[in-house]
Amino acid sequence: MVTKVNGSTKRVGLSPTMHNGFYGRDILSVKQFAREDLDYIFGVAEEMEAIVRRVGATDLLKGSILANLFYEPSTRTSSSFAAAMQRLGGSVIPINEVRYSSVTKGESLPDTIRTLEAYADLVVLRHPEVGASQIAARYSRKPIINAGDGVGEHPTQALLDLFTIQQELGRVDGLHIAMAGDLKYGRTVHSLARLLCLYDVEMSFVSPDILRLPEEVRDEVIALGKPVRETHAIEDIIETVDVLYVTRVQKERFSDLTQYESVRNLYEVTTDLMSRAKPKMILMHPLPRVGEIHYDVDADPRAAYFRQMENGMYVRMALLAAVLGKA
Ligand code: NCD
Fold first, then answer.
1. Active-site residue 154, yes or no?
2. Which member of 48, 213, 289, 312 has the lowest number of beta carbons within 10 Å of its beta carbon?
């Protein structure tokens, strides 16, 4: 059984393998990662993909238990974590509907976490509040993986996004990457923009004024020496981008629904728009899409979002194996 390595402890010397900086660690923010960590995870993820394609599963994590605790809806994140654990021979306590758990009886997050960490080897947590995974991590002796904390971060999504860029285009350095849609509330954008700062990339941010990238994230990106280009129209950047990362307007985050209505249908990627893009670029989306990408675009080989979604399982397999010290 893995008991957590103190978050503030430096990795060196604590890991059972030379490069695995994830052993016994919480995964709370992309700010924890260095490039060598990503190279390591992506290497393991490639091996996981090969294993799944060849034999479907392995018993690397046989006997290990993952608690999947979701206080917000999820299809891909929760099922890919569950599939990842099961393909590694482990098992899952799924609490996808906190409605049916003691949370409805008024149980606090710390008490729920204390319960699950007593039964499981690690806890994957999605919660509507920014910083919830940090709080959970304080109460847990077992590693916590942040699967989305409100409008904060979604670090494992950013890992799979970056892995996808690397797999599809063969590199990350030197690319022009544009993120479009709800940059204010989209936690996947907040994590990806931060993670991309580890690379030599050009970033563009496309949104209406009310959905601009939060100042905090923008300042961090600028502080790391990246020029931030902001625009209102995908048309402004479509011809030069290598990656167009489109996001859903996060309806559930708006307190004023008329404001949501004013921006909900602002962007739609169509085959017409794609005809102006580079032949080698890729179109990404964390999914679910609710009108941002026309279904006709799915047939375009540059539409990478379903491959991106599948990569989530391989990256999460790598992460689980790494955190539990079996990679
Ligand atoms: C995203 C999320 O939950 O932040 N989805 C996901 O995890 N793949 C994006 C979204 O909900 O729009």
1. yes
2. 289
